[in-house]
Amino acid sequence: MEPSEHARAAASGGSRDPLVGRLLDSRYRIGPRIARGGMASVYEATDTRLDRTVAVKVMHPGLGDDREFAERFVREARAAARLNHPHVVGVYDQGDDTSDGQDTVFLVMEYVPGHTLRDVIRKEAPMPPARALALLEPVVSALAAAHRAGLIHRDVKPENVLIADEAHGGRVKVADFGLAKAVSADTQHTATGGVLIGTVSYLAPELVVDGRADARADVYAAGVVLYELLTGSKPHEGESPIQVAYRHVHHDVPMPSDGQPGIPDYVDALVARATSRDREHRAADAGVLLHQLHRVEQALREGLAADPELTADLLPRRTPDADDADPVGNDTTPEPFDAGALALLTEVDPRDSGLVDDGSPDRTTALERHLVPTATAPVAAPVTEPMTATAPPGPTQPPAPAPRPAPARAPSRVAPVATTARRRSAKGPVLLLLALLLVAGIGLGAYWFGWARYTTTPAVLNLDRAAATAELEAAGLEVEEGEPAYSENVAPGLVIGTDPGPGDRVLSGGTVALVLSLGPERYDVPVLEGSTEDQAQDALAATNLVFGESRGRWSETVPEGQVIRTSPKAGTTLKPGAVVDLVLSRGRKPIEVRDFTGKSFDDAREALEARRLEVSVAGEEFSDTVPEGFVISQDPTGGTLFRGDTVSFVVSQGPELVEVPRVRAMGVEAATSLLEGLGFDVETDEADGYLGLGFVFSSDPGSGQSVPKGSTITLFLI
């Protein structure tokens, strides 16, 4: 995976990622994006067929039409699928989905919830050697498995080392075999037509010079990672990738103990061996490096502050020619330089030009002086020739007479010897003088180019800019302000470093760049309310904060899918790498409505208002079947509503009441007709003392009473 390069940019707006929620290849349900690189994005996804969480790496739209990029994707799948190792991220599947009308090339990989080794370096480095080796050991083990399978990774860096969280075992896994390639006699060069591949801070020198890559390039990158774990910084920095690549070719990786005193000499030696610029001096592959690493771990467990034997064994081997030659150190070609300088790397080593010579021993010689006692040099044979044999004769001094030959020798054999001696004595002084002049000239030039024109950079750490500038200018140096950097220990505005560093050599009248402290690195949680989850993740990445998790909440005001708030809240100042959680809106909370028809209206109103719904009475009606105060009808009668929506009711007034008219003394026919006309039913009965007259004596209910329409009225006749 490529979380890394971590090439995220803050998003100020935009639509939701169209891939989220999509089903690739009718199998992989795409979830939230967890990383994005220059070529692809990585999403958390669900394998619907096997019901498991996976990571899906999707090539950016449009790149699927590029055959070279597509082949790289397929190559990554095939390369990583060949490896079955507990410290290698597994690749499960590879495919090309065209359901939306365009090619979506993707890889399906093991999902590793957690963080990267870069996050560990940012939080813990510089770290003790034991901790650094414990983190690097599984990485080297994974590379060793790849090398045994005939594969080289070619992009080993902290961003490609994933560390699962504690809930998932904390296992370390190496990811992104996208640059991996099988090792063969025909594939020892880059497969990109001369284009440099990999990350420049971890490139082996031979990759820069001729693009040649084998297992030892991975060993070099692992050594650089170990240096970074031990010191908290990369060994070579520059204003451009070209400068960094140049330093890899012409500068040794420094000893970690130079910046972090207390690191044992054998740990220095392990770094020196792994990062030797001559790949013939490195471990042959990661398997050999793993063995060396185990030896160093054992020495650390035994608590050894130094181990001369182990150190001497680990140090890069030096050829006899290198031992006999004058010691040379790192190149000191003035920086910056242009791309043309890098193009000459394969043609001329600047040290062979006679213009570069800092006169300092290389790192291997420096270590060896502390480890191996100097052997007694053989004593040269004494010079027995007379001094006059090498001194020019005086201008008026005649030649010395030839010695008289012994009687036993013939004169013919003595004369040539005398003549030859006189001829050599005449040329010798001249040649010697020329040699002395030549040596003196070379020595003077070497002294000038390699020493006399240099001075030492004064130490100005912890001074403010004005004081540091005054001290450097007093030493005859120019001052410029470099890129400021964060510091947990140095107050803002004070010097935390210089380039060249304190005590380093610099050309007289040269320029020293001041690195001023910005103080502790802190970032404010951005205001993310109203942004989408994808936009919020990008904004957090842009401020060096880490997205934690999203939790859904109902909201009546924030649309679904947008951020309601963050935890910690916006404006909180945090360290880089701090985790920020998001609270996302699930939209308005739905409210289920039940049917209250035939139920008490008062009970219905109380229940609905408790759920924040509005209640209205559309009307009241008489009902012979629904009691007064109960619901005759309701709108809506059910379904889902939202807070503030209205439910209307028609409430019963009970049956309609009619006043009984006065019918006393009326004839039975007239009274019956009147009551039936008002909607009553009529019955007749004889009153007490009935005389048979056919007139109404009284009624029940009596006149003036209000009774429901349709009630029965009894007439009592007399």
What does this structure look like?
The termini are far apart. By secondary structure, the protein is α+β, with helices and mostly antiparallel strands. The strands form eleven sheets. It has a six-stranded antiparallel sheet with strand order 1-2-3-4-6-5, with helices on one face. Strand 1 (23-24) and strand 2 (28-36) form a beta hairpin. It has six domains: 23-110, Phosphorylase Kinase, domain 1, CATH 3.30.200.20; 114-319 and 326-370, Orthogonal Bundle (Transferase(Phosphotransferase), domain 1), CATH 1.10.510.10; 455-516, Trypsin Inhibitor V, Chain A (2-Layer Sandwich), CATH 3.30.10.20; 523-585, Trypsin Inhibitor V, Chain A; 590-654, Trypsin Inhibitor V, Chain A (2-Layer Sandwich); 657-717, Trypsin Inhibitor V, Chain A. The protein contains 18 helices and 31 strands.
Question: Key features?
Answer:
Trypsin Inhibitor V, Chain A, 6-stranded antiparallel sheet, 6 domains, alpha+beta, nucleotide-binding, Transferase(Phosphotransferase), domain 1, 3-stranded antiparallel sheet, 718 residues, Phosphorylase Kinase, domain 1, 30% helix, disordered N terminus
Q: How is the secondary structure organized here?
A:
Layout: E1 23-24, E2 28-36, E3 40-47, E4 52-59, H1 67-81, E5 91-97, E6 104-110, E7 114-116, H2 117-124, H3 129-148, E8 151-152, E9 161-164, E10 172-174, E11 181-182, H4 205-210, H5 215-231, H6 241-250, H7 256-259, H8 265-274, H9 286-301, H10 308-314, H11 320-324, H12 339-343, H13 363-371, H14 411-452, E12 454-456, H15 465-474, E13 478-481, E14 495-499, E15 505-507, E16 511-516, E17 523-524, H16 533-542, E18 546-553, E19 563-567, E20 573-574, E21 579-585, E22 590-593, H17 601-610, E23 614-622, E24 631-635, E25 639-642, E26 646-654, E27 657-659, H18 668-677, E28 681-686, E29 696-700, E30 706-708, E31 712-717
Parallel strand pairs: 13-16, 18-21, 23-26, 28-31
Antiparallel strand pairs: 1-2, 2-3, 3-4, 4-6, 5-6, 7-9, 8-11, 9-10, 12-15, 14-16, 17-20, 19-21, 22-25, 24-26, 27-30, 29-31
Helix pairs in contact: 3-5, 3-9, 5-8, 8-9, 8-10
